[in-house]
Amino acid sequence: MLRSLLFVLTIFSQIIFRDDFFVVSLTSKTCSAKNQDCNMAEVDGAHPKLFMLDGIKVGHVQEVKLMEGKIHQMITRSLRPLLFEIPDFLSKEECEHIIKLAGKKGLHESTTLPDPDDDIAYSDEEKVEHCKNLLSNDRGSDGKISTLEFAAFIKQDFAMSISDADVETMLQKVNFDKDRDGLISEKECLEGNHVAFDQYMRYLEDNHPRERTRLSKQTWLSVTGSTDVVLRDLQQRVKLLTKLPKYFIENSEDLQVVQYGVHGHYHAHYDSTNEWNGQASRCCLGNYSDHCSLCRFMTVLYYLNDVTDGGETAFPVAEEEHINQTEIEKEDRTNLSIHC
């Protein structure tokens, strides 16, 4: 899929920007000039209008003009979620240029675990907070954490998909399940070895990298305000493609460049937060932090190179009418090391 583009359009029940709700429209104006911001009109005098592309049906091909002298084909790959592919969206030279920029910026592997130097005894307050976080995954509301709920906790807080055998071994090593009944009570958690827990998680990350939810290197490139011709032209193409107001495009997140090596992966996940609690900062406004709320209206993926095996993007529940989140987790369908 060299030089192709894949983008996913997902509408959540509450997509919040500034302090207003978006209004989604299936009709748009045609921009007559590159600098014209033709879809910035407001609805009801308050709510910004977003344009939503129409997929028609799976396999439908639309022609779009995004640059002078070339017509691109936009192919509908899915309606749930709304998913399009545009072959040859980027030239070979543009792909190589972006890869070079990312290399100069420096690619870094992210980690979700504490530094080994932080292996000091937990205070009582820290244990209480740690156990409170663990017990918040008690979906059965029985006051105890099952092995399935424990695995969900590890996946959520440490970005790792661990096997049943790993769960059993971990509970024994960290002494979180003293009575060996396969359940963790608050008392057992508080009396467990929390430093050993951190050490075992680091062991899994170092020795079983394929169990991580994400295994890759990445960096971010600033596009808005950049003097780089390729990045500026790329932003213009996205604006013409999405028909979104210029303001929204220019205030989107920076361009994330990700490198996946051998066995590299990113398990299936939601690419946006489906609601905002009113307190967390919003990543889309440039307020990046570990706990910012991802307010993404759509995701645009550029494929910069090709490989002999792998390299695909999977959508495990695409076109499914009803999605049972509990069943998905029970079957571990988001684990692409198993299902892809």
From TrEMBL:
Signal peptide per UniProt:
1-18
Q: Does the keyword Signal apply?
A: yes
InterPro entries per UniProt? EF-hand-dom_pair, P4HA-like
Any one GO MF term held by the record is: procollagen-proline 4-dioxygenase activity
Keyword terms of this UniProt record: Iron, Membrane, Metal-binding, Signal, Transmembrane, Vitamin C
Q: Name one GO cellular component term.
A: endoplasmic reticulum
Output this protein's name. Answer: Transmembrane prolyl 4-hydroxylase
Q: Species lineage, top-down? A: Eukaryota, Metazoa, Cnidaria, Anthozoa, Hexacorallia
